[in-house]
Amino acid sequence: MTSQHGNAKYLKDYQPPHFFIDTLTLDVDLQPTQTTVYARSEVRSNGANPANDLVLDGIDLTLKEVKVDGHTFTNYDINDEQLLLRDVPQHFVLEITTACSPQTNSSLEGLYLSDGAYCTQCEAEGFRKITYFLDRPDVMAEYEVTIKADKAQFPYLLSNGNKIASGDLADGRHFATWHDPFKKPSYLFALVAGDFDVLRDSYTTVSGREVALELYVDKGNLSKAPHAMASLKRAMQWDEQRFNLEYDLDVYMIVAVDFFNMGAMENKGLNVFNSKCVLANEETSTDRDFHLIESIVGHEYFHNWTGNRVTCRDWFQLSLKEGLTVFRDQEFSSDLGSRALNRIDAVKVMRTHQFAEDAGPMAHPIRPEKVLEMNNFYTVTVYDKGAEVIRMLHTLLGEQGFQKGMQCYIERHDGQAVTCDDFISAMSDANGFDASQFKRWYSQSGTPQVHVQEQFDAQQQQYVLTLSQHHSPTADQPSKDNLLIPVAIELLDSQGKALSLNAHGVADNVLQLHQSEQQFVFDNITERPVAVLFEDFSAPVKVQFEQSLNDQLHIVRHASSDFSRWDAQQSALSGCILDELGRGEKAQLDEAVLATLSDLLNAALAGQEHDLALVAELLQLPSFDTLSAHFEQVPVDAITAVTEAFAQQIAEHLQVLLSEVVTQLSDDKQQSQQSVAKRALLATCMGYLARVDTQLEFIETQAHQGSMTLSLAAIKALILAQHPRSSAMLDEFAARWQHDTLVMDKWFNLQALRKGSDSFANLTRLYQHPHFSWRNPNRVRALIGAFAMSNPTQFHAKDGQGYALLGDALVKLNDINPQNASRLITPLLAWRRFDSTRQQLMKEQLERLKVLPKLSKDLFEKVDKALSE
Ligand code: B3K
Ligand code: ZN
């Protein structure tokens, strides 16, 4: 590792801090380019691990003064990242005054200005951009924070905890002082100053305490706040009911800001949210937006216990809070809405993004072992695979056992900074569960493969499943061990009825695969059953099972798990696509599949399918990324040719039925689960109908006057079908919504999906659009992110224009916002998985970045890994 980019940190090198800081008093005098921060802390040596020098983290700060026990202190060394105080006492009061410049801070980390409001983002290591500190999560302090700012411009001054004082100052300024009674790590600190509209409400907790709820939004956005507020109240209640966890402060605040690097941040008592993840109303938001907001509001709220009250010892333990909290938010959404649909969503993320991460240069276990830039490890592996690991534990222990484990975990560790091992110990101690093998899921990276063979002996009336596990090396780990893999199963008879498995010694329908190969024998089976394996995606693995198309379609029709019906449908469709790959545009979709799809639509029309959203999912072909996961070298052109051909055949074959659906189902524009499901089906139908130029009037009407969900779906359908009307529809949409930034992001999104040779020029032209801004991550992701991640045909254009477009953007973003750049680079990292021409073109872009004079740590870590052998 070159010194320009600092040194990587290793989990194995963890050392407890030499000093603790028990209290921190901050006085922040806000000015755009000269904010003064006075920090007073009580520092105490860690007797078990003492030292003479105190090394504090600090970046982009101007040091004004240091005092130790009231006296000016000059015995220090300072560099770009640290302040080293020599020979300090073992217990003392430290006072440090620094200055920083929020206005020029475009990294959106530390203290910055978002559209005129001051706000902070400290996770993972942003607090060091505010003051010199022991910026690590195992140093927990009680905070008292005073904020000073111009009163007219910044009437609201907010920080964590409870407001204990406020008043006027000279020169039209004012102040507010906040006290947070709970000790917390610096990454949970937050400060906001601005002028907002406020939606106020309250929640009475299960023990009868009244909590004030406050949602701060930009002026004029109040009509978009109620959904997030309602979501928050549902989350508070759900956590009491399902996890027996109650909120602890007297106030819970959420602030929506426009400039934000991710979705939201769980700062104690003062969440900061990307406005996109809070603001919604019926006119401007899609059903997905409503759903996403509810789940993110829930996620940040659930962190109050899993993350804040019990926090991480070090950043390698990130999944301790993120995997667990994602699991909790998934359960929240599933308890409140459709469990199957939520499961499908989660599994799509795993199969498209997480499996790809495992297959690329950034492969890492859910508890990484080596990190250069921590922000690079807020990944689908840590979050989503982390949640899958928690889910497996839930599957193995059952809900009751899992809750017993949770209770033990919280009782043992409330107020502490702990490790994933501590979590597992609590779970295993509470249940008498031997977790020694299961724990490997935390240290082993990669997507396991499970091979399945079945045998049926009619004479013996015996059905035998032979399962074996296989682990290929990943970029970070050459050798692997066997894991404990829970395999939830169902056996269907020829009528589609589930056989009772309890009689066959299988508790709760879950087989435990822990050796490299195991046989599971089922007796008294009178006919060859059809096996539904990994029901509900009971483990994050790839399954190799030569199941016949007939068996797969039998599952689609009869499995008791709706998720497994979808899963079998995806396997069937993927199988057909892979079989026909060599035939390109001439590929033919199997008649039996087309017949199943017709039956499905007929059943939906006859009211025999209970969930139309599921029908919508069952009608869709697997995505490009899902299909790519089947290959070491992705055959881009073959995949797109065959999927295009199949989509066209489905459209032609089902034209009449699809058309009937759109005439029968009308959208009442309500938010009920049923209306949402109806719209999901209508959207899918339009996708096919646009390809055969059918129901164009319906599609155009939806584009003009439909709900936001259907309006976007209609235009997207036209774009993907490369329909001549798509341009006009896009223009009309922009004219109608140009006053609304968040809606314009959806328009950028659609623009990014355009195909054809002028699509590149179109994109670069949009950089000049009055709504576009390189400094705003939402805009950049809506246009460039969507292009690189969701438009494979153009991104992978053979002449390399797509790669160059992303490369140009990354060069620019490297200076403005390294975190944002580092998220966007993902598709280029997979360069080795493409044909040699594409490899060369992608590699050129990576090499170009590698030699940038001021390459950020964030990009360096990824580019370096991607290019090294
Ligand atoms: N904990 C934050 C993510 C912080 C990302 C820092 N780069 C949001 C969340 O997962 O809830
Ligand atoms: Zn989180």
From TrEMBL:
Q: Which domain of life is it from?
A: Bacteria
Show where the Peptidase M1 membrane alanine aminopeptidase domain sits: 228-441
Q: Which cofactor does it need?
A: Zn(2+)
SUPFAM superfamilies documented for this protein: Leukotriene A4 hydrolase N-terminal domain, Metalloproteases ('zincins'), catalytic domain
Give all residue intervals belonging to the Aminopeptidase N-like N-terminal domain: 26-188
Q: Name one GO molecular function term.
A: metallopeptidase activity
UniProt domain Peptidase M1 alanyl aminopeptidase C-terminal: residue ranges:
551-867
Enzyme's top EC category: hydrolase
Where is the secretion signal located?
none
Q: What are its E.C. numbers?
A: 3.4.11.2
Limits of the Peptidase M1 alanyl aminopeptidase Ig-like fold domain: 446-545
- InterPro entries the UniProt entry points to: Aminopeptidase_N-like_N (IPR045357), Aminopeptidase_N-like_N_sf (IPR042097), PepN_Ig-like_sf (IPR038438), Peptidase_M1 (IPR001930), Peptidase_M1_dom (IPR014782), Peptidase_M1_pepN (IPR012779), Peptidase_M1_pepN_C (IPR024601), Peptidase_M1_pepN_C_sf (IPR037144)
Q: Quote the function comment for this protein.
A: Aminopeptidase N is involved in the degradation of intracellular peptides generated by protein breakdown during normal growth as well as in response to nutrient starvation.
Q: Which family does it belong to?
A: Belongs to the peptidase M1 family.
Protein's name in the database: Aminopeptidase N
Which organism does this record belong to? Pseudoalteromonas ruthenica
The upper taxonomy is: Bacteria, Pseudomonadati, Pseudomonadota, Gammaproteobacteria, Alteromonadales
Gene, per the UniProt record: pepN
